Amino acid sequence: MFTGIIEGLGTITSIQSSGQSRRLSLEADFILDNTKIGDSIAVSGACLTAVTLEGKQFKADVSPETLGMTTFGKAKVGDRVNLERALRLSDRLDGHLVSGHIDGTGILKHRKITDNAIIITIGVSESLSRYMIKKGSVAVDGISLTINDCDPYSFSVSIIPHTAKLTTIGFKKIGDPVNIETDMIGKYVEQFVTGKKETGQSSVDMAFLAKNGFL
């Protein structure tokens, strides 16, 4: 579990292919103290497991599923990535609950400077936008952001100078792909409302919500 508050940047230093999977070698810009082999590290939002670790460097395996769902399928040596180590139960939850399980990718469509902020518009499919609401949360390349506005094919976010300076979103260009993780609460609510019991009947329907005072 992560918060979407990026600790720092890192660089992909090598990519090894093995069948349909890959092993990434990465170097963080900061010392990975109190981190051990087997720990989870969100790399541009995708939860990966450190299989080797030495100082600022670690390696992580990327499965075919992850390659297909994220930007890692087109990653190159030298690419900069956002890094966040897993949340500890004693930590403050400064962003929002982020699982590190990427739902899909989006494309940076537009960026506009408004006073001290950069307004970025990202194009997404309807399968992602259905879980987005105005003022809701979204993780873009692992960064916890608040949605300014959204429609079925895009959403916009406001990037403050601090976020632009410390994460990859500050130098992303028009047309660049980004990893998207939608708010997990929306997905759980949808499952509870539309999920089926073994009998084939919906466990929660409109009548149930009305009966219990939710409507």
Automatic annotation (TrEMBL):
PANTHER family: RIBOFLAVIN SYNTHASE (PTHR21098:SF12), RIBOFLAVIN SYNTHASE ALPHA CHAIN (PTHR21098). Residues 1-96, 97-193 form the Lumazine-binding domain. Pathway: Cofactor biosynthesis; riboflavin biosynthesis; riboflavin from 2-hydroxy-3-oxobutyl phosphate and 5-amino-6-(D-ribitylamino)uracil: step 2/2. The keyword Transferase applies. It catalyses: 2 6,7-dimethyl-8-(1-D-ribityl)lumazine + H(+) = 5-amino-6-(D-ribitylamino)uracil + riboflavin. InterPro entries: ATP_synth_asu-like_sf (IPR023366), Lumazine-bd (IPR001783), Lumazine-bd_dom (IPR026017), Riboflavin_synthase-like_b-brl (IPR017938). Catalyzes the dismutation of two molecules of 6,7-dimethyl-8-ribityllumazine, resulting in the formation of riboflavin and 5-amino-6-(D-ribitylamino)uracil. It is an enzyme of class 2 (transferase). Its EC number is 2.5.1.9. The gene is ribE. Lumazine-binding repeats lie at residues 1-96, 97-193. GO terms for molecular function: riboflavin synthase activity. Keywords: Repeat, Riboflavin biosynthesis, Transferase. It comes from Desulfonema magnum. This is Riboflavin synthase. Homotrimer. Pfam families: Lum_binding.
